[in-house]
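Input.
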Amino acid sequence: METNKNHSEGNLTDQDQLNSLRKLITGLGQKELERLQLLMTDPHEFSEEISELLPHAIRTLLSKGEITTDDLQPIIEETIQSSIQRNPRKLADILYPVMIPAIRKAVSEDIKKMLASVNASLESGFSIKRLKWRLQALFSKNSYAEIVLANSFVYHVSHVFLIHRDTGLLLHEERSAEAETLEANLVSAMLTAIRDFVKDSFKEKGSGTLEEIQVGSLNILIEQGPYAIVASVVEGQPPLDYRETLSETIEAVHYNHLNDLQQFEGETESFIHASRFLQNCLIQERKEKKGSVFPWPLFIIALLLLLSVIWIFYEKYNRQSEFNNFVKQLDETPGYHITQAKMRFNTYTISGLKDPEASPIDAIIDENNLQGKKIIYSLSPYASLDEGLVLNRAMRQLNPPDEVEMTYYQSGLLKLSGKATADWVYATSKQYQYILGVIKLDTSELNVSRENSFSEITTQNLSWIIPIIENYSFVFDVNVVSLDAEQQQQFDSLMSAAIFLADYNQLYNKKMAIFISTYTSRGGNTQANLDVANRRAAEFVNLFEEAGLTNELIDIQIVYAEDNEEQVPLRSVTFKVTEKTGDRI
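Output.
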């Protein structure tokens, strides 16, 4: 037992010594050596370990210049090509979010370039037809070039592409002479991506295929074969047998290039011979050009339309002018005030104010030849202060005799002249203040006839004679005491009222008298001024007595203007009717 124990202890000692010797030689412990052995024997573990070091190693080699991107490019290209050959869908799925927007943008830009080029070549041309196309382009969302192409061809195939079905690579392209160059590789990639998208999104099964794509006014017709696809870009509506032409083309390509299609590895040189088949798909049909006969029917129609428009605007202008003249004349007619006027088609609407004394509106309509027009009025009544209308209003309310003339002044004064009866004068003195616009009544030039005896007028009211007498006044020049012809006429009118004073006193049992006041001044020669004032007063006393007034109905007084409370003209004579007390008023 003892021998075995010693042997075992010896082995342990040798093992420990061996491990110590291994660590001294390699610098690695037991676990580290086991990890190193695992990396050497297990490829997966080695790949995991090296994946963290390889990028750093490549960047270090590039920074040191020991390798270049040219050294790496063949390796990367071969790797990508090999991946595409094994599973092209995987790379397409990876690039789909980036490539589809780029392809769409590139195609859009190429189409824009093509249309811009066509526009540039067509801008210089001009004709009635091109003018019509320009107007059509102006009022539509299409450009002028698109309108021209649409009207120049019944249908037009601009491009035909031959595309490898599995990889989506462009094998060959043919285009018409009028077409612009497109990025064919991008177009083929776009078509392939759209085909795969439709198939995946809508769960297309079996032999279902994408046959047509519409982009604006363009149609992309697709005919598919086992190994290749033919896609043609068509504007307009091609004939019904065009699909058969595409089918024959794809069949001819497969018949003549079957080996090339089956063994395709990215080389497209051999497919240049497919050009003769693709060119059969580039068909077009131009619209027939008519002779250069001037389009008289179109010209006559356009001329008639133009004349109709001119006539409509002319008639509208005439109606508007007539209406404006009518409104202006109506607004300027005394008694009318227009606040708003509108013309809508054949209906006229007028709003404003109208005095009842104004002229009838029908007369103004006749003057402007607007009979039969539909005119809607909204005229509120109001009182105008126009002189003529106030005078009409006074004549209608006062109903003056034929011998009486009325004159109205803007200040509000209504002046009566001529001859009237006492009854009418009395009634007028009561009614004038109710006439709108009349503030004061002047009867200084009115002769009141005394056709009735006292017994016949005892029942009448004679109070009207007092304000009429007091309304008169006379002004003289320096040292003049006699009446001139105009003043004599006024005095006669005064006497037509004063002659009733005796009847007034008898009717009302009064002792009223006419108080004659003659005004002078203290300035200058006071005595001489006083003498002239006395002579004027005496002149009026004599005139009254000659007219038939008795002495007890007249009295006089000399007044100095400086002593009078109210301002009166110098060398003037006024009258006041008041009752006598004693010998004087």
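The mean pLDDT is 76.
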